[in-house]
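To assess whether ligand presence alters the predicted conformation, the chain was also submitted together with flavin mononucleotide. Input:
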Amino acid sequence: MKVLIIYDSVYGNTLRVAEMYQMEFQNRDIDAELVHAERLEWDRYRDVSLVIFGSPTRGFRAMPTIIRSIRTGAKAMKDYRVAIFDTRIETRDIQSKVLRKLMGAFGYGTDHIGKVLKKHGFTPVVTPKGYAVMSAEGPLKPEVAYEVQMDVKALTEHLKV
Ligand SMILES: Cc1cc2nc3c(=O)[nH]c(=O)nc-3n(C[C@H](O)[C@H](O)[C@H](O)COP(=O)(O)O)c2cc1C
């Protein structure tokens, strides 16, 4: 059983969350591999139980590299379970009313990834998760480490089924 965590990250926040996921799976004796979306070679992987896509939210969207990795991997991923997370700024931390409205209307990286996955016939096994940063380039809010622990625990339950 293997978990593949496909990520992209500009400032390192999403990478940090991806590493937290990897560590939490490994603490549960589950093999978890991290791969940057640009370096992904789908045919290198066998016996994958779960693929997790992690992206920063930028301009209300996920990174193009992550979207590309889904498009190129849809066939290879056919029997895999999927999950999604992003990093983002929480609306309550946004001063501008207009920007808050736009965020409400256009959503986050997970919405973008979710739509593309759905197009290819995939439904995430758990509700997609957004992890909050303190400001536009980070760092992550301190509660993220605990949230990841809980989220990996929930994902692990799905791996047993
Ligand atoms: C150019 C830019 C655009 C951003 N756009 C959004 C956005 O639309 N919504 C949001 O919630 N956060 C937005 N953010 C905040 C990032 O999502 C956040 O800093 C994220 O953790 C960055 O991840 P990374 O360090 O892995 O690159 C933006 C940040 C930058 C620098």
